[in-house]
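S.,

As promised, the flavin mononucleotide run. Input:
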Amino acid sequence: MSDSLKSSKAEINMSTMDVIYKRRAVRDYLPQAIDKMVIRTLLDAAVYAPTAIDEEPWSFAIIQNQNILDRLSESAKDLIRHGDKNSTEVKHLLPHANTPDYHAFYNASTLIVIYSKFQGQFVEADCWLAAENLMLAACSKGLGTCVIGSSVLALNTLEWKAELGIPAEMMAVVPIIIGLPAGETPPVPRKPPEIIVWK
Ligand SMILES: Cc1cc2nc3c(=O)[nH]c(=O)nc-3n(C[C@H](O)[C@H](O)[C@H](O)COP(=O)(O)O)c2cc1C
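Predicted complex:
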């Protein structure tokens, strides 16, 4: 474990409930890279997620090359600019895509992409459960994370699969940036759980 990580809140023992409430979508990071061993620990936690009929349909790509992150960000922004202007997601992301300085991965040093290896009814659910395990494990080690849904379209183009060495049949499901948070991220408030029935 790196000194930077040791000196972060990594050594604080947080309860499961603490971690759930402490996790935030972090969009500002310190420049330190994350140790390979720490990434391995997060991947080990990810694959302990529940998985339908024990399929474990996930595969992981770790991208730390800044040139790749920069070009992938530009591809993601370009696809948003050319997306369906009536879609809620495109409407939300368009102002960012039109901002030259906006980087889809902010200044995170690491992007982990969870790919599904095949199709199936619960395959995407499995990948998302693995993603949450990974994000909570990262939070428990003082690391910040953020899902970057805006990069999924770009990651699933044949061009990017070829460049990254991803087999064409695999699908990018969850891209997650990871790094040491540069500061505190205020919580985004939630509505109380809406209970439609409790019999
Ligand atoms: C499916 C999904 C896609 C997301 N895509 C992005 C994204 O492209 N860029 C971004 O900055 N945040 C993205 N987020 C993070 C959300 O904006 C964030 O989780 C939300 O604002 C709630 O904040 P919190 O995670 O700190 O509670 C995404 C989250 C999810 C679940």
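The pocket of flavin mononucleotide is lined by residues 24-25, 27, 146-150, 188 (CB under 6 Å). The beta strands are 58-63, 110-116, 144-147, 171-179.

- D.
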